[in-house]
Amino acid sequence: MALKALDIYKLLPKKNCKECGFPTCLTFAMKLASGKADAETCPYLDEATKQLLKGATRPPILRVKIGVGERSFAVGEEIVLFRHDKSFVHPPGILFLVSDRQTTDEIRRVATRVKDEVFPRVGELLRVNGIAIRNDSGSPEAFGKAVRVVEETAEFPEMLIAGSPASMEAALAECGNYRPLIHAATAENHGAMCSLAKRYGAPLAVRARGADALRNLAGTCAAAGVQDLVLDPFPETLGEFLITSTLIRRLALARSAPELGYPVYLDATAPGLEEAALSLGILKYAAVMVTTPRNPASLLPSLTLRQNIYTDPQKPIQMTPGIYRVGNPTRGDPLLLTVNFSLTYFTLLGYLESSRISCFLLLVDTEGFSVLTAVASGKLNENMIRDSLQRFGVEAETGHRTLVLPGYAAPLSGRVEEATGWKVLVGPRDAAEVPEFLEQSWKKAPGG
């Protein structure tokens, strides 16, 4: 079980020597309890105490990074069983599968798609994370060639799937310096696979059926010196994956099985079940998933679900405050104020763009709250609006001093006019009615 700071403090030498880098032993204990310090940095602890503290203070699920550069992604570091308890942290990586039996052109087409295909949604760019290359041929040469084609096409995270250490070594010779995920170490080949993972500094997936077998194999690989592990429970059905992944998460968070404190992998390539597998994996603890290249209509719901589940429920998705242009506005065109809650912004933007009304949008920082919530909580007030108008040089941009407030901000209209000296119009509450409101009302406004 995890130790609290005071429990850890009782095990420390209480010298306050500062040799660990912290001013006092109590500070050091607090850092250990939060996983932000290493017991090894205290020179006065005996080995038994160090091992006890390491087991009790390490993150319950270790962080594993796959790939390098801008497209790399991290998984792990989850601390709750249910999203509503706090938040899920690292979205699972989704990788498209290619085979070394495919032609060079086929592999290149998939790699190009992974490189270029992006789906913008509420201020974020949704995309597949990388490619998994599988050694279906059994040939080290063919496997290495397939990896080389991917490497020549783009730079993004890769997963290498092969049971043969010889094939894996051939593939790592092409991309081993870029931290591909090696899949997989098994009871039969774990010695050779661990050696390759250590030589190339690559994360390693361990594959065994069920939590008990995984626990033994992961413990063996960790004892061999492999730091970054991913667990493949090798389920026969999606139901079995659900049971096993939930058990692994429970044991890891309880710290009763530290050998299971690693991210989990799911093969989501079963024909006819891929969408279901992706959804289940996103909801129930898969950190890395492989699927065949999905068409955009099939893929986007999974990417959207991942975005929704891995958005902090306590922190709404926000837009950057500032002045935005809709269409091609010129001086004298309407100026609308709204909040920086992404859903509010994109909903309003959709109606304005469909009506082809050119205008300016001023987004004020309400910490991601909606208009109604921001007004009720005081996050949106006349002083904030005045400061935003000044900060973003709105008058110089628009050429007038008339502002349209959202309907739910109507109680602020008089105070905004007094604080800013601007003419205020109160728009409708429903974004769908804004275009009609502008057509009827803006021409009557000074500066319109």
Report on the structure:
The chain has 448 residues and is an alpha/beta fold. The chain folds into three domains: 5-52, Electron transport complex subunit B, putative Fe-S cluster (3-methyladenine DNA Glycosylase II, Chain A, domain 3); 64-309, TIM Barrel; 322-444, Rossmann fold. It has 17 helices and 17 strands. The strands form five sheets. Strands 10-9-8-7-6-3-12-11 form an eight-stranded parallel β-sheet, with helices on one face. Strands 13-15-14 form a three-stranded mixed β-sheet, sandwiched between helices. A two-stranded antiparallel sheet has the order 1-2. Helix 6 packs parallel to helix 7 (190-200). The chain is globular and about 80 Å long.
Properties at a glance:
globular, 17 helices, TIM Barrel, alpha/beta, about 40% helix, 3-stranded mixed β-sheet, 3 domains, about 450 residues, 3-methyladenine DNA Glycosylase II, Chain A, domain 3, Rossmann fold, 8-stranded parallel β-sheet
